[in-house]
Amino acid sequence: MTITVLPREAHEEGFTTVAYKTDGSSIITGGHDAKLCIYDASRSQRNAEPKILQDHSEPILTMATHKASFVTAGEDGSVLIFRNSTNDFEKFLVRSTTPVRSLSFNSNGTRIAVATDEDIIRVILVRDISKVVTLMGHSTHVKSVAFSPTSDHLISTDIGGDVKIWDMNHTSGAPQCIKTLSGAVRKCASDADVLNTIAWSPDGAYFCFAGKEHEICVYSSKDWTQKYALEFAHFNDIITMAWSPNGSYICSVGKDRQVVIWDTTKKSDVIKYENTAGVCGVAWHPQENELAFTDQKGRLLLWYDPIDISKNMPHPAQKALEEMDDLDRLFEEGATQPSVGMSLPHNSLVDDAAEDDGDEGAIEDEEGEDLDDEGEDVDMLSDMGDFVIDDDGAGYAEERQHRSNGGGRSQHTGVRGRSMGPHHKLTEQKRFQPGATEFRTMDTTIKPPVPVEGERRYMAFNMFGIIYTIYQNTHSIVNVEFHDQAQHRNFHFTDYYHYTMAAIGPEGAVFAVEGGKPKKKEKTTNEEGEEVEEQEEGVTTSILYYRPLMNWANNAEWTVHLPEGENVVSVAINECSVVAVTSAGYVRVFTISGLQNHIFRLENSVATAAHGTLVLFVYKQGGTGLNGEQNLEFMLMDTSTQEMIQKGNLPLQKSSQLTWIGFSEASQVLMYDSNDILSILHRQRTFGQSYWVPVFDGKTTAKEFQRQERYWPVGMLRDRIMCLIIRGNNDSPYFPRPPVDDMELRMPIVNLETEAGQLEELHMRTRLIAQHDRTEAVANHQEDEYYDVLKEADAEMDKALLRLIQIACRTDKEQRILDLAFALQSSRSMDAAIKIVTHFKMTNVAEKLIQIKEVWVWM
Amino acid sequence: MALPRSHQSAYTPSEIEFLAGEEDIIIIPTHSMPKLQFISGSFGPFRPPLKAKVPLWLALMLKKHHMCNILAPEWLSVDNLKKLLNDEETVAEFSPLPFHYMEISMMLLESAPEDIPNSEQVRRYLKDLRETRQSKARAGLAVLDDRFLGMNNLSLMEINEIRPFFSKAFLEMRKLSVEDSNQYSQPPA
């Protein structure tokens, strides 16, 4: 898409700021030459000369607009208010001795917050400028201020990097600072070009500002915590930013000369424009798909249609129309109800729709409330309705979206205001290959979309090795790398089939691809020696390809073509077999040498994983439940004996998904879900006795570290989870390959912050893992190998118990001491326990312990 | 050692490098190995992909044999160095860098540049940092007096650079001041 940007010389070179009047009729710019220029914003008048106001004596730094008036201020320290209709100077609001850095109107335009080069903020009543409220609390000069759209809160930043949130309707009467985010923004000089703007989303649910690392931090105004960050687009300081009038986009501009538009639902950048100079001001047109920005050369640049609506992207202002009308209606006393048609003057289709229910709907003015429309349910289910295809090119998609939003919000409550809760989504559990990621950038111009050339993804990532593929249009390059290179060499090969799934184990790697594509044109040489392109008949078949890692025998690799119409959907490899689950509902088991060993039926497979001689299958038992339950079951099988070891269901919370399955180093079955909880299958060797135990909570762990990160599991050692740490908004790792981290397991029990809680957790966890190890040792006849480990675990448990006994003694919990003593493993620990208890002079408890010990010895 | 006389009181750079070799660093072994026994202690066992903390000298040795990848310390990243350089230029104090930052970064950049993301940029920033700090240290010497010289966060290599001049000058100044005070304390009768 082409970017249409119209530059206009507006001011002298230097910092320039821009704003739209709230009705969108004019653009106001203020520049280094102390002039204000007022441009006609209509597209037909785009080249008309601006009206110039010269009321300021020094450079203009900031502006704020409201319905009836706009205010400007600058280095001369005076805040001037102008009438919107005539552009006439009305009065001085403030005369300050220091430059004014930021201005913000409250929602009804009665008050204005002013930040000057002082550590106080003044809130001035526009009608009577002698009524001033000062907000004190900043320790350095205030840099920016912003009223929330509801005027309940004010947020300010200072040059020391603090962000303060003020409650303007505090119960004490005076505004109060309710939260300080210290060091949230970058420190800067008070005359720095960086504005540290706080931008509120139009509905007041979120606000954002530039963080320290050239990213935009978006905070929720509900609990004042960061929800997400928009990053990796700017490479120098962000100067300012603005939300689009409907909150769908954020436009940020920076010293790196870039204008970046971000989509707030996808949380990624949509489009960028690179200017020839640093951009220092930005404003969205209140109604149109238009953006105005100013640069450090004093130019005003108008960007027409920055959002490509034809690509099903929401219009940046459309939804906001009715919302602004709402606000206006609330504050316009005695104003007549505007007709439904007038509130949406730009969308004739919506007009029609609104008129349909005009009879019953006009009074409450709830457009789009008619839920009887077919397809409305579908709209409600999809969260934004952005799948609606604009097939007739008449803006139908927007209309649908608009209506679905309107319908969603006023569904039962009748209360206006966008409902912020997530729409209930029925997302079916996706089929996945554990340890695989997806291509990031796809070329969507081709149907079906293919990855961009050179794009890569992981096909398998486990404790043994990594397989990744690089897409090269006509072929792919598959790379196989190992963590432990003492045993295997890394290798790569050219893959003409574009394998889609892979699995790796100590014996070898297995690759598979679905069939069903038309056969490739093959160049063959005919009898006359000419190259002839031949199109073979039919479609390709699904292929399973095994490549050994240890080859003492020749020709150990093998390929299997499945019958036409049957596709491999998931593969796994363990020490003795290759397992392929197919779309025909078959599980085909091959031995490592390629011998067909077994076949059985398994429907609705979701994922498979393998380790040792075990294979874990996860499959759907029935469909996704209406309330978002996934109804997943698992089956654990030993492929060497073809015995089923365990079968049961997967505990997944409503609307959470399974994201990974795997095995620990000691063959314990693991699952990781979208709520970031790692669970182990306890007592997996006893049929019908197994259950899942949570051993790690990723969200709590990240919160403890106070980091914005997620964990992408790779495997588990005896007592540590091995994972990749994923920062930012990504949900999967990318390239270059991040290092594998190990995190301590921690069961989510209560009172973890106390010493006793931690010891209890340690004891419980060690007990569970030791119990598993013991059964595993028996099952695999490896008692000797496990002997040391288990002994160590016993000692560790006793140590934890003894410390718990000591804590219990200190707090006089006699009953608990007995409980703890019962759990001790060795008689030496029991002696120690008796010693501890006697030390605390609890003779009756000591007697009881001696009794226990006697019974023990006797047993 | 063929050093100018004035420098003989100081360490040689290679001696300092040797000292820095004792600093711990995190590696990701690429070969599994049993516990390694050395005079200074035992390290390991190494089990890829589990990270391990070893002294720098061992990390470099393993790296030389392609048996590990070194994880660059957190401070040795472009973003951090950029920030430090910025601070260094604006704040009067020396920015907090590890005591052996120069030696560690030098050794890592020399023998494991592929393990450091954006190593070229890192190298450039380090050079800038070093120059800024050097000029600062020199400026600091201007206020040298006979009592003390306070410069926090100076690294060993940097101390070593100014040590010969500093100790000499300091002693000279002390001598002068003793003479001064002698003059004042015993006014001629």
From TrEMBL, chain A:
Key words of the record: Nucleus, Repeat, WD repeat
Annotated WDHD1/CFT4 helical bundle domain residues: 757-854
Residue ranges occupied by any WDHD1 first WD40 domain in the UniProt entry: 8-300
GO MF annotation, one: chromatin binding
SMART domains listed in its UniProt record: WD40 (SM00320)
UniProt-listed GO biological process terms: DNA repair; DNA-templated DNA replication; mitotic cell cycle
All residue ranges annotated as the WDHD1/CFT4 second beta-propeller domain in the record: 431-749
Gene Ontology cellular component terms for the protein in this record: nuclear replication fork
InterPro entries: WD40/YVTN_repeat-like_dom_sf, WD40_repeat_dom_sf, WD40_rpt, WD40_WDHD1_1st, WDHD1/CFT4_beta-prop_2nd, WDHD1/CFT4_hel
Major localisation: nucleus
UniProt keyword annotation of Cell membrane present: no
Record's subcellular location: Nucleus
WD repeat feature ranges: 8-49, 135-169, 231-272
Positions of region (Disordered): 336-376, 398-423, 516-536
Acidic residues: compositionally biased ranges: 352-376, 527-536
Name of the featured protein: WD40-repeat-containing domain protein
From TrEMBL, chain B:
Entry annotated with the keyword Protein biosynthesis: no
Primary subcellular site in the record, as a coarse category: nucleus
Domain GINS subunit: 75-167
GO BP terms in the entry: chromosome segregation; DNA replication; double-strand break repair via break-induced replication
Keywords linked to the UniProt accession: Chromosome partition, DNA replication, Nucleus
Gene3D superfamilies per record: 1.20.58.1020, 3.40.5.50
Annotated localization: Nucleus
UniProt GO cellular component terms: GINS complex
Domain (DNA replication complex GINS protein PSF2 N-terminal): residue spans on this chain: 12-71
Transmembrane listed as a keyword: no
Xref: CDD domains: GINS_A_psf2, GINS_B_Psf2
Subunit structure and binding partners: Component of the GINS complex.
Family statement drawn from the similarity comment of this UniProt entry: Belongs to the GINS2/PSF2 family.
Protein name: DNA replication complex GINS protein PSF2
Originating organism: Phascolomyces articulosus
